[in-house]
Fold this sequence. Notes:
By secondary structure, the chain is α/β, with parallel strands linked by helices. The chain folds into 3 domains: 16-64; 67-141, Rossmann fold; 161-360, no CATH class. It contains 13 helices and 8 strands. It has helices spanning 16-34, 40-64, 78-81, 114-125, 133-141, 161-196, 240-243, 254-262, 270-274, 288-297, 314-319, 325-340, 344-360, and strands spanning 67-71, 86-90, 103-106, 130-132, 202-208, 214-220, 279-281, 310-312. Helix 1 (16-34) packs antiparallel against helix 2 and helix 1 crosses helix 13. The protein is globular and about 70 Å long. The chain starts with 15 loop residues before the first helix and ends in a 5-residue tail after the last helix.
Amino acid sequence: xxxxxxxxxxxxxxxxxxxxxxxxxxxxxxxxxxxxxxxxxxxxxxxxxxxxxxxxxxxxxxxxxxxxxxxxxxxxxxxxxxxxxxxxxxxxxxxxxxxxxxxxxxxxxxxxxxxxxxxxxxxxxxxxxxxxxxxxxxxxxxxxxxxxxxxxxxxxxxxxxxxxxxxxxxxxxxxxxxxxxxxxxxxxxxxxxxxxxxxxxxxxxxxxxxxxxxxxxxxxxxxxxxxxxxxxxxxxxxxxxxxxxxxxxxxxxxxxxxxxxxxxxxxxxxxxxxxxxxxxxxxxxxxxxxxxxxxxxxxxxxxxxxxxxxxxxxxxxxxxxxxxxxxxxxxxxxxxxxxxxxxxxxxxxxxxxxxxxxxxxxxxx
Length: 365
């Protein structure tokens, strides 16, 4: 029987990359410890082949299988039954047939009858997964649904600091290695940018980072040169319209369009990682003027700064680029989900989805 995982994407192949990465990492560690000779090319090629084959196999299986969930019709059960890509079955009474159901969802905060209490306990004893409605919705959407911090389900407003320290050190080491390897490539790209349009190759902008502290973010320039958007304190030198990148924005250059779609324009942020201002994975930092606007509209918006901003993030691989306040509020639910499940495993899942994003261009503007 299928069961929902801790993270959303039961219907997606997000676990394939991190699972293979961990498996091959352990294999490399064993080979090094035992000093067994091995071929790097062979390991890399088998990893790539396994990744492709498993992704294709999963895609084929996904077309023929769908998650089947029974719903106890109490509380706010309509919130989940309106969600697509799942077969929902309303369980009208405790004796309903659940043999073809993969899991059961119920609003555990509602007033359940004694009959339903007994039946749900019996289901759990028989191994039938029983999920609280709110938890199920989080698992399927990848979002923590809150309207006020006082009613959040995070358990604590602080992420796991032990992992944060380890993550910071790991980020720095990986950024140093990547910076050395990618330096020649970035120099070539910078030269191409200068030839394509007048202006500097590097774009700098004031954004809000860890614990709400402003910092200068570095990117490869993808738009026509605008001096006021590069120098200054952000709020005084650029307005909201100038800070927002719109769909099919005319300011984007020919080279810039490719750099945005492939996310190559984000690579100079390795400098920000080395300076301790950013992480590889985390909520994307917003321009100062946009962040101030969002804070006026959404009181708990600053909470997303409890962790370091990232080059890629949970919201980016799910939702892509957003600018409207309504979309930003929805994006916050993704950010809060990431903070709630702050760990190595969710970072690996984001890495896998980021690779897919770079190949498909999802969310690029």
